[in-house]
């Protein structure tokens, strides 16, 4: 679609101009032809006065999908600048999970302020979602889904889908329940349309249902949806009562959040280091204090590693050139250990890893370490002989690299397994410690080999 390839700065300026001149027809023509994502970006670029005018130019139903696309900060701005009744009309038509998502992530808008926009029924449904523990299936599900009874006919279901289609999160999957609202089956819209109008739902439903429990971790739900290639997954209670669904677009957002969280943890920064118990971002002082204990521990360990050089002072005095390659040995050890760690923690279930699987992983990593070590050593041996013309130093550095790289790959497999067995988060605990231990062992091996050979 060519209209997506436009000069946004110029386009948004035209929108502001249309609002400034009160030209409603021009504004709607320019604004409504945009994708909802671009509309949300356009809203962000409007002046404060023009943001207030949106209520006169865009219908609440039109603004609903724009609001859902907005970043939380832009949603807060919309609530701040747009009239109360307008926001209320928007919220009434918003999916419950989107409202709960906003409440959980907003720093400025209190839960009570949002709930006052909703009627009692919608309030109860949103509060139910908020009642579930954070990052569980219950906390991210939506109740706007297609649920029918076993004894209903295809004709009745099609009429029902026409009624709810505008508000349901998706109608591609239709979930079938018994008279007690227990989930008994699922069918697709395609199967419904291909069946005769008098066919009962129980006759076309699939009974082998893949579902999630309200207390399941969102990462486990994501993995299940990936394994079974699902566009949506039903969420049930302990007694198999249908509670709602989670759609693939929600899981894409969750995937991004989890990836960001894993990246932070890999660097030793936990989620609680960045947010408080209510989910709000910590202040600069709070953030600094939460990271200081880790920093202090690593500094003490680094000082201990630095003390290793004192143990090999005589060796360094005999061959001062050895000190020039200390950074190369330590950096290589840390990098290889981290790479091996990344491969290990990518395993689906470390806790359930059998001894055979462990040996297989170790074998692959050791062979990879030998290959990398020999390649790196050969390159270093040639470089040192060309620039320093010292065969013995070249031999020491090359041999040290081979052994250090192999040992680091082993550490990258063993340490996360030990951390996991002790019950700690492998992403948080393994990353920083693998670097420290790999550096320490690499340095010790380097000086030991140099002491023996020189």
UniProtKB/TrEMBL annotation:
One of its GO terms (molecular function) is metal ion binding. CDD domains: CBS_pair_Mg_transporter. Residues 141-204, 205-261 form the CBS domain. It is a multi-pass membrane protein. Belongs to the SLC41A transporter family. NCBIfam families: mgtE. This is Magnesium transporter MgtE.
């Amino acid at each position: 679609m060519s209209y997506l390839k436009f000069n946004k700065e110029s386009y948004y300026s035209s929108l502001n101009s249309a609002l400034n001149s009160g030209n409603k027809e021009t504004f709607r023509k320019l604004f409504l032809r945009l994708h909802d994502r671009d509309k949300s970006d356009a809203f962000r670029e409007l002046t404060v006065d023009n943001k207030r005018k949106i209520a006169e130019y865009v219908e609440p139903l039109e603004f609903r999908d724009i609001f859902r696309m907005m970043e939380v900060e832009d949603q807060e701005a919309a609530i701040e600048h747009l009239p109360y009744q307008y926001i209320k009309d928007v919220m009434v038509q918003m999916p419950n999970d989107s409202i709960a998502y906003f409440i959980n992530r907003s720093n400025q808008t209190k839960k009570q302020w949002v709930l006052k926009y909703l009627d009692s029924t919608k309030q109860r449904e949103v509060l139910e979602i908020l009642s579930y523990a954070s990052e569980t299936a219950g906390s991210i599900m939506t109740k706007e889904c297609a649920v029918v009874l076993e004894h209903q006919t295809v004709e009745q279901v099609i009429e029902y889908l026409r009624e709810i289609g505008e508000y349901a999160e998706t109608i591609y999957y239709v979930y079938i329940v018994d008279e007690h609202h227990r989930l008994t089956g699922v069918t697709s819209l395609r199967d419904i349309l291909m069946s005769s109008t008098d066919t009962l739902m129980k006759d076309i439903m699939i009974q082998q249902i893949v579902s999630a429990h309200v207390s399941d971790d969102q990462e486990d739900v994501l993995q299940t949806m990936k394994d079974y290639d699902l566009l949506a997954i039903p969420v049930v209670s302990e007694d198999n009562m249908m509670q709602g669904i989670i759609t693939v677009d929600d899981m894409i957002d969750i995937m991004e959040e989890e990836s960001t969280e894993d990246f932070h943890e890999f660097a030793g920064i936990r989620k609680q280091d960045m947010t408080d118990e209510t989910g709000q971002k910590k202040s600069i002082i709070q953030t600094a204090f939460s990271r200081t204990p880790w920093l202090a521990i690593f500094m003490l360990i680094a000082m201990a590693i630095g003390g290793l050089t004192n143990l090999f002072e005589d060796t360094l005095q005999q061959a001062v050139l050895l000190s020039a390659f200390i950074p190369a040995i330590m950096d290589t050890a840390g990098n290889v250990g981290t790479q091996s760690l990344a491969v290990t923690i990518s395993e689906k279930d470390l806790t359930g890893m059998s001894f055979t699987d462990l040996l297989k992983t170790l074998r692959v990593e050791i062979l990879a370490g030998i290959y990398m070590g020999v390649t790196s050593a050969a390159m270093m041996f040639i470089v040192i002989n060309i620039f320093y013309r010292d065969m013995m130093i070249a031999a020491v550095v090359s041999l040290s690299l081979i052994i250090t790289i192999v040992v680091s790959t082993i550490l990258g497999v063993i340490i996360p397994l030990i951390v996991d067995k002790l019950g700690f988060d492998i992403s948080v605990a393994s990353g920083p410690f693998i670097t420290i231990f790999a550096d320490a062992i690499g340095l010790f091996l380097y000086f030991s080999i140099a002491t023996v050979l020189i």
